[in-house]
Amino acid sequence: MTGRVFLLLALVAVATAIQRIKLEKRTYTREQYKFPAIQEHLKTKYIKDYVPNNDAFNEGLSDYSNAQYYGPITIGTPPQNFQVLFDTGSSNLWVPCANCPFGDIACRMHNRFDCKKSSTCTATGAAFEIQYGTGSMKGTVDNDVVCFSHDTTFCTDKTQGLACATSEPGITFVAAKFDGIFGMGWDTISVNKIAQPMDQIFANSAICPNQLFAFWLSRDANDIANGGEITLCDTDSNHYSGNIAWEPLVSEDYWRIKLGAVSIQGTTYTNGPMDSIVDTGTSLLTGPSDIIKKIQHKIGGIPLLNGEYEVVCSKIPSLPNITFTLGGQDFNLQGKDYILQLSNGNGGMTCLSGFMGMDIPAPAGPLWILGDVFIGRFYSVFDHGNKRVGFATSKSA
């Protein structure tokens, strides 16, 4: 009997050592994909002091880099609810602020945080600003309790810093389904050096024995309700098959690792290992322009304007696998994985390559960015404690 009780307690302990955050997603039409705007956003994100070409943004980017996998958090006491985009390519938490001006449409169309309605909130008054291609997100810093999902177990204390946005740039966030951004990168790239909420979760070994989080993204366009899942403090073997292949971090800024090789049908398109960043905040997969052009040609891509390539939809089943070597293992993207099948608004489909050429100069580049085209196919584990990123083949829901 004692043994059974011990086993039950052990199972309860395991169950409480992982937090699941269900993700929602948004699908897109052909008109909503603006490659130049996405490229400008990424350059602003990854090239220090980059001055963006605002003409590109004026084409009408209506969301955050066309990547909208988002989920719930709460802030304050009593809890105020928000939907946030979990972004491994940035390191700050921000949400709209209750005192934003009436003219800020993006702020007024989303849930807003009110420090005065939280008994645990401290308004520091410190100025905060993040530069985006369409302008800057501005606000002030508040300190308060932040909880994942609606669970009061995985929470920070009331000293957690977050930005309360009083100004959001242009139309970028107007149509976004999420309220704000939850950065999950490293503190070294955090604006104002504000520690991200995961730091406090990781420091609490009682609820978080493993300092990691993992993303499983659903890429089934017909399953709108199920966007995927993030697990905190452990992995979930129900979401992947085989072994996890690990790559150590190159540096503690972004989740930056070495990409061993990119090859198609035995031909290697890279010259030695190259830096790559695993970024849940973008939908595309980018690499140096000269390599991407060769890949587009190999898959029969038809060049359009602005660096976009179209593929005949009927050819998707016969497209070659594209192999990425990471952690000593090969990961194959099939045609259905790297081709974006988008509604053209006329009842038909347009098929675009999910690859985009982008040249990041030294010292940051040359650089690959593994966005949702890659993460959607491969279960991705961000291991903070061991400073590494792991990949395994995702299972369908």
Automatic annotation (TrEMBL):
<dbReference type="InterPro" id="IPR033121">
    <property type="entry name" value="PEPTIDASE_A1"/>
</dbReference>
<comment type="similarity">
    <text>Belongs to the peptidase A1 family.</text>
</comment>
<feature type="disulfide bond">
    <location>
        <begin position="313"/>
        <end position="351"/>
    </location>
</feature>
<feature type="disulfide bond">
    <location>
        <begin position="100"/>
        <end position="107"/>
    </location>
</feature>
<dbReference type="InterPro" id="IPR021109">
    <property type="entry name" value="Peptidase_aspartic_dom_sf"/>
</dbReference>
<keyword id="KW-0325">Glycoprotein</keyword>
<dbReference type="GO" id="GO:0097300">
    <property type="term" value="P:programmed necrotic cell death"/>
</dbReference>
<keyword id="KW-0732">Signal</keyword>
<protein>
    <recommendedName>
        <fullName>Peptidase A1 domain-containing protein</fullName>
    </recommendedName>
</protein>
<feature type="signal peptide">
    <location>
        <begin position="1"/>
        <end position="17"/>
    </location>
</feature>
<dbReference type="Pfam" id="PF00026">
    <property type="entry name" value="Asp"/>
</dbReference>
<dbReference type="GO" id="GO:0004190">
    <property type="term" value="F:aspartic-type endopeptidase activity"/>
</dbReference>
<dbReference type="InterPro" id="IPR001461">
    <property type="entry name" value="Aspartic_peptidase_A1"/>
</dbReference>
<keyword id="KW-0064">Aspartyl protease</keyword>
<keyword id="KW-0645">Protease</keyword>
<dbReference type="GO" id="GO:0005764">
    <property type="term" value="C:lysosome"/>
</dbReference>
<feature type="active site">
    <location>
        <position position="279"/>
    </location>
</feature>
<keyword id="KW-1015">Disulfide bond</keyword>
<dbReference type="InterPro" id="IPR001969">
    <property type="entry name" value="Aspartic_peptidase_AS"/>
</dbReference>
<feature type="domain" description="Peptidase A1">
    <location>
        <begin position="69"/>
        <end position="392"/>
    </location>
</feature>
<dbReference type="GO" id="GO:0006508">
    <property type="term" value="P:proteolysis"/>
</dbReference>
<feature type="active site">
    <location>
        <position position="87"/>
    </location>
</feature>
<keyword id="KW-0378">Hydrolase</keyword>
